[in-house]
Amino acid sequence: MDMIRINMTERTTTREPMPEQYAHFGGRALTSRIIADLVPPSCHALGPHNKIVVANGLLAGTTAPNSGRISVGTKSPLTGGIKESNVGANAGLYLARLGIRALVFEGMPRQPGLWLLVVDANGARIEDASQYRGLGTYDTAEKLLAAYGQKASCLIIGPAGEQKMAASAIMATDMDGRPSRAAGRGGTGAVLGSKGIKAIVVPQAKGELPQYHDPETFKSIAREFSQKLIKEKEMLRVFGTAGMVKAANMVQGMPTRNYSLGSFDRADAINGQALHDTIKKRGGNVSRPCHTGCVISCSNIYVDEAGEYITSSLEYETMVMVGPNLDIGDLDSLARIDRALDDVGLDSIETGAAMGVAMEAGLLPWGDTDAVLSALDEVSSGTVLGKLVGSGAAVMGKVLGVRRVPQVKGQSMVAYDPRTFKGMGCAYATSPMGADHTAAPAIPGRPGLDPSKKFELTEKENQVELTRDLQIMITVCDSLGYCFFVGPDIENMRRSALLLTALTGRRTSYEDILDLGVSTLNIEKAFNRAAGIGPDQDRLPEHFYDEPLPPHNRTFDITPEETADLCYDLK
Amino acid sequence: MDMIRINMTERTTTREPMPEQYAHFGGRALTSRIIADLVPPSCHALGPHNKIVVANGLLAGTTAPNSGRISVGTKSPLTGGIKESNVGANAGLYLARLGIRALVFEGMPRQPGLWLLVVDANGARIEDASQYRGLGTYDTAEKLLAAYGQKASCLIIGPAGEQKMAASAIMATDMDGRPSRAAGRGGTGAVLGSKGIKAIVVPQAKGELPQYHDPETFKSIAREFSQKLIKEKEMLRVFGTAGMVKAANMVQGMPTRNYSLGSFDRADAINGQALHDTIKKRGGNVSRPCHTGCVISCSNIYVDEAGEYITSSLEYETMVMVGPNLDIGDLDSLARIDRALDDVGLDSIETGAAMGVAMEAGLLPWGDTDAVLSALDEVSSGTVLGKLVGSGAAVMGKVLGVRRVPQVKGQSMVAYDPRTFKGMGCAYATSPMGADHTAAPAIPGRPGLDPSKKFELTEKENQVELTRDLQIMITVCDSLGYCFFVGPDIENMRRSALLLTALTGRRTSYEDILDLGVSTLNIEKAFNRAAGIGPDQDRLPEHFYDEPLPPHNRTFDITPEETADLCYDLK
């Protein structure tokens, strides 16, 4: 596999074989290694010394299920630390078919400007994109697909990324050509914006699939793996991630009004059943995949009463962060806000958290959908309020003098209150990425590497060990190109070792697979430490330890000393 | 000497003898020890676990010259690290006369509210201050002096501090009862605001002066010391700190247009001579002391053409940061901006830097005094723009996506470009306070502890050692209550050892004096490290290393590795 270096200072592209030391890595394992090796940890995230790497996973292009996600790695302007954010997009598959593992953007334009990177069988080229300046991602996607083919896969930034807002996402076109999928977290969109790139366009590539060392074994394992996922994940196909609304509300862990409550009085109106029924009744779609090869299809297409498209996909995390967290409780509002966020190109989780802080400060009124949409319009037009909204929750709290900000290392928490979801709280505290639910989805039914270790959602026992194990397994998933729902699962780790062996002919053991996770996490932590983000920052804001969460009135009672033991310097 | 603990959760005050371990410390040495011992480094700066300590120096109330400054110590909401900021104010003297060394504010009001702390011979009491809510510092001071006597010394926050803006200052009333003196840096005003304190009022106290162990020796040394200062600092008495304008411009180190140039085309219109002549012609005052006991009198009172008071005192650092740094070049504009900043209660250095960043981003127009004043009005009224302006340069840069932000550890640089003032650059990089010119005034005529070591302003040789030595000596000054201009001077360090011995009867050597500085700096760095601010953050932003400063086109060429050797873990 090759990599393409895109030098934005010189505006040149160079295709070269993947250097030997990176040859056996993909996805997050690869992006984090390149960033750690080539980016000075103390550099400015929006300056010429930062790089941004787009890489598909080790299994990209194969028949392994749900393995087509693509990783974006960089130094984050939001956290100041290393970042990997991945997204389901066919670019991962197309690049694999072109024999390309990674795109590495370097330098910075000498003069302001806006460009596309187009990658196809003819190579990679930089094209002028000034006609797309200031456009939302939806308009941009429509024009790009018209120009490069309806099956092209595009990674696009919106007005937020062009303005280098720290909560900017990179939006990927979905199976229907709409920019509804996000490499959302950590401000990757701002870094792409700082390089002058409006979009990466990969027209449909029909090239060769990877050469399998042992195709029969591979296909047989992949087939059985797919069947297992199809069976296990049926509820996701029906209710999507919104199935979590009811459960999280029941355990009183659903962030409401800037994390001041753990349950929401109108949860029934926005739960998985309500979403499913509404979409079905209106003629939307409740089970769409995010990329070719997905067998779970947890995404949905949300339409209005007239059956007109509003957004895709309404996901649990976004729903809560712009719903209960803002005291908003109807699906149409959530869908309209989600659409506006995707269009302007902001991380919906981070921005929901930022708005919750703004509401606590009285800058925006609680529960006011129109005020939220109007603020997002201001993101697009670049007013001071807009720029503040696009800067994320931590900066919002700093500017407004708000103490209760649900963030770690500058990145907002997600739709799981850590006083209920104790393991998730450990993940928020210790992930090198800042607060992030995908770092370690510690929810019931997700054991760690030692299934004999029992844990209760709201109790501290064994949560630190669980979190460490899940982080290791998730890092493996992020590196192979798997989606989150393939997930942290010992059986799938073993299966992946067999798949990699069958694919490459290099004997890969279960231990090797886990070591991929461990070594990648340690590299990320070392980068962060050199960037000034050390173990002292592996903690939640003080109010989560101090203030009981109504109605159950638990606090987060796992200390930084307890998490540090297992979660720093992983063995 | 005693200390008073003010518990703002319970709204109680307790006077108690200074605990033994603090008995021989004052000023910064005391505030930093109390903060390091009693404040969890990871706490939220605006929360109940932070404390704010107000302490006079070890020589307060004595006849030692210029020894009446008062230190404010806390965990800074601007940097996240430890902070000491001191100010000339008679409160230092009055508290000494009341036998009080320190005020320690703790906890946080259970319900929002605004109070005064009044300290007099009857003790300390908390009084309602709701009638002062939202008032500028000038109106507040006028009302407080009317109520508590014209000679009262008040430490006041403005609307910025009430709103807990991270660049908020604590303003002290000057010899004329005007709130023109600032414990400006690091957001101390926001912390006082978070405690619900609008002002600390110390009515004139006529109590006993400290008991001298050996009064004759003390007075004789103090007298000779005063005469030396009077003689040496004559230029400060004539031109004030504005005398620096001409020199800094000549060496091309005066930050212009957000540190993009080192010299300013209209420097002659704002230099020391121009300021002196303008004030003299209009009937202002060019040589005012900031507190009783000052023999230098470097302050001025700036009046308009009709002889009406505008502001006091127009100082070099403010003049440059709101002048050339913003492309503004007339004294009346500088004076009006300075007055507005003092009145709203913002650090003029930090806010000047923040506005320079805002101008680079196009949010405010270059050189537009009215736009600056209008933005400061918005600070008072609490608009989003106002809150952003009050959040300091680093946050301004984050929100606007500006890479060229002159700051270290979240605090802005001052009116000395580090590419010219190399030693000052080392101080910016290594001070535990963030960028700060008072950390180590490395300008010609200021040798370190080894006067044989020569250095040139713009050359790197010996600058690190010089910076370390100056930081040690300045920390001593900050602990004894001296003003900056008594300063880093071996002879004055020796003199201070004799003064302390004569005052207390405890034999204090020159080495003991230096150790006071070293130990205090190490305590501060240890606090910062535990707060997540380690040696990796001892560096300037990358563009100071990369981008030559016109017109001389030098870069800052002293590496973090070079400064770390001598300036971290001081011996």
Structure, explained:
The structure is a homodimer of 571-residue chains. The first copy, chain A, is α+β, with helices and mostly antiparallel strands and 571 residues long. Chain A folds into 3 domains: 2-202, Aldehyde Ferredoxin Oxidoreductase,  A, domain 1 (4-Layer Sandwich); 234-412, Aldehyde Ferredoxin Oxidoreductase Protein, subunit A, domain 2 (Orthogonal Bundle), CATH 1.10.569.10; 422-567, Aldehyde Ferredoxin Oxidoreductase Protein, subunit A, domain 3, CATH 1.10.599.10. Helices cover 39% and strands 14% of the residues of chain A. The first copy, chain A, has helices spanning 27-38, 91-97, 137-148, 159-162, 188-194, 215-232, 234-239, 244-250, 272-282, 316-322, 331-344, 348-360, 369-381, 384-389, 393-400, 422-430, 463-480, 490-504, 510-530, 542-546, 560-567; strands at residues 2-7, 12-17, 52-56, 69-75, 82-88, 100-106, 115-120, 123-128, 153-156, 170-172, 181-183, 197-202, 285-288, 299-303, 309-311, 407-408, 411-412. In chain A, the strands form 4 sheets. A 6-stranded mixed β-sheet of chain A has the order 2-1-6-3-4-5. In chain A, strands 8-7-12-9-10-11 form a 6-stranded mixed β-sheet, sandwiched between helices. The first copy, chain A, has a 3-stranded antiparallel β-sheet with strand order 13-14-15. In chain A, α1 (27-38) runs parallel beside α19 (510-530), α17 (463-480) crosses α21 (560-567) and α18 (490-504) crosses α19. The longest helix of chain A has 21 residues, at 510-530. The first copy, chain A, is globular, with a radius of gyration of 21 Å. The two termini of chain A are 30 Å apart. In chain A, 63% of the residues are buried. The model of chain A has no long low-confidence stretch (mean pLDDT 96). Chain A binds chain B through residues 40-44, 46-47, 49, 77, 163-166, 190, 193-194, 363, 384-385, 387-388, 391, 395, 398-401, 403, 529-534, 536-537, 539, 541-543, 560, and chain B through 40-44, 46-47, 49, 77, 163-166, 190, 193-194, 363, 384-385, 387-388, 391, 395, 398-401, 403, 529-534, 536-537, 539, 541-543, 560.
